[in-house]
Amino acid sequence: MTDGQLSCSTVIITQKMETLLEDEEESQTTDGQSELIPNFSCSNVIIEEIFSRLPVQSILRSRSVCKPWHSFISDPSFTNFYFSRATLRLFLSAYNNSTRKRYFLSAAHDGGSVTRLITLDNTLLINDAAEAEHLNGLVCFTSANGILAPNEAVVLNPSTRNIFKLPVTYASSSSSSEVYTCYLFGFDESRNEHKVLNIRMSGNKLFEPSAVEILIFSMSSYSWRNVNVELPIDVARDHLYFYIKRSVCVDSVIHFMLVYSFDILAFDLRTEKFSKISPPRDVVPRDLRTTYTRDGKVFAKYNHPRLIKINGCVGVVCHDRVVESNEMDIWMLQDYERCVWVKETVTFPESWIKLDGPFPLDSINTDEIIFSPSRLSRYVISVLIYNMKSRRFRSVQFTLKHPLCSERVEFDQIKCYVESIMPLQRNITRT
After folding, report:
1. Are strands 112-113 and 392-399 parallel, antiparallel or unpaired?
2. CA diameter of the chain
3. Whose CA is closest to 370, among 380, 379, 381?
4. Who contacts 170 (Cβ-Cβ below 8 Å, separation ≥6)?
5. Which of 236, 264, 278, 350 has its CA 20 to 30 A from that of 114?
6. Which of 220, 218, 173, 178 shows the shortest CA–CA distance to 198?
7. Does residue 232 register a pLDDT over 90?
8. How far apart are CA 162 and CA 267, in angstroms?
9. Residue 32: which residues within 8 A CB-CB, separation 6 or more?
10. Upstream peptide bond of 150 is cis (omega within 30 degrees of 0)
11. Helix H or strand E segment including 414
């Protein structure tokens, strides 16, 4: 839809809404009370139907038309209704190693032009360790989680283009201690609230933590609070310092995998307790690292299993044999109570190396898995999508515009998100 068509549609809808508002005023009782005639309940339904069909930017503009519209659109019930009917899109992130700019992008799930949403200048969101997690309209983007690189986290609404940087937490231990921290995104369905789990470890010796703190950031109150809970593991033995940057949240529970035992730790946002889930069989890689050659260059691939959310289930991607067999195994936890894992073997249509080493990142719908993007040219990136029913791949292409055409720009994340008008404070200047 063009800007002209959109403006015309907005005018027509505005006229309809004004008529409905006049009807509301006429229906008020003579004693000043706002009792409405029964027919206005139908008007409310019509209002909801009209607004729910508008693009997000039109909704945001409509809030400033009048107080009744602002009140109606800001009501949490309408926010949830709009989300239930909104369009599925793709969230992408890219990083320019030369300018140190981080780009947050959006695109239709079936390909086409990439839209630039937000650009962050001189960002600390390091390219090779960045992670993104989408939950109910918001995306949490985290940088390198470890001691050797700085880390931080931002939460953004790709639809409204608002972005919020989480405030830094400070450990209660000595300032001379080495501190490791990670941010894990979750959604508490019992409270209809986004939360960020923060695990902080500190100690006087590198990789030997002596203190662990658990904090939760509420996206409703915009504040941190400590949680008094014990981890069901030996922190030093399981090297909790590493690899806690990939997590998935399913049914209000945040899951992440340990590096040595490959057990999955689960933190329930409702009870604020940890539990441990046994991994699927054959999850332990034969070798921790695999080297291969592409275009005359030698690359190293670390074979640690990866977590992914598929069809509302926790998934584990095993890829240690993909270089030689051209296959990956994706295990899905289909029965949570009985810990029943089901395996899906993905066979690539050609050499995984020639395809630029794609990894599964997210599921588009109940049947399809989206893989990491690869650049076909300066102006085009390609994304593989695997259909679990047909067991076939299809390729979707996206076109780029300046400044994304630079060869220094690397695409590192692609996730699905549903458009939302969920409010979010903004504390970062965007460009």
Report:
1. parallel
2. 84
3. 381
4. none
5. 350
6. 218
7. no
8. 28
9. none
10. no
11. strand 409-418
Residue type (1 letter), 77: S
Decide if 171 contacts 177 (C-beta within 8 A): yes
Partners of 383 in beta bridges: 396
Residues 6+ apart with CB under 8 A from 49: none
162 contacts: CB under 8 Å, gap ≥ 6 = 156, 423, 424, 425, 426
**167, amino acid identity:** P
**DSSP states of 58-112:** HHHHHTTT-HHHHHHHHSHHHHHHHHHHPPEEEEEEEEETTTTEEEEEEEETT-E
Q: Which helix or strand (DSSP H or E) is residue 41 part of?
A: helix 40-52
Which DSSP symbol is given to 151?
-
Range from 167-171, 199-203, 271-275 that averages highest in pLDDT: 271-275
Distance CA(65)–CA(60), nearest Å, equals: 10
Cβ atoms of 405 and 374 closer than 8 Å = no
The residue type found at 191 is: R
User: How confident is the model at residue 224, as a pLDDT?
Assistant: 95
- Amino acid identity at 375: R
Residue 427 is classified by DSSP as -
For residues 272 and 183, what is the distance between their CA atoms, to the nearest angstrom?
16
Which amino acid would we find at residue 175?
Answer: S
* Whether the Cβ atoms of residue 79 and residue 404 lie closer than 8 Å to each other: no
Distances (CA, A) of 31 to 27, 118, 166, 346: 12, 51, 49, 70
Closest residue by Cα to residue 57 from 425, 421, 428: 421
Tokens of 164: 């919020």
Q: Do 201 and 235 meet the contact criterion of CB atoms below 8 Å apart?
A: yes
Whether 146 contacts 259, CB under 8 Å: no
Q: Which two tokens stand for residue 302?
A: 């670390």
pLDDT tens for 171-227 read: 554 455 566 778 899 999 999 999 999 988 776 665 566 678 899 999 999 999 999
Q: Are 312 and 187 in contact (CB under 8 A)?
A: no
* Neighbouring residues of 368: CB distance < 8 A, sequence distance ≥ 6: 385, 386, 387, 388
CA 310 to chain centroid: 13
Tokens of 348: 């690539």
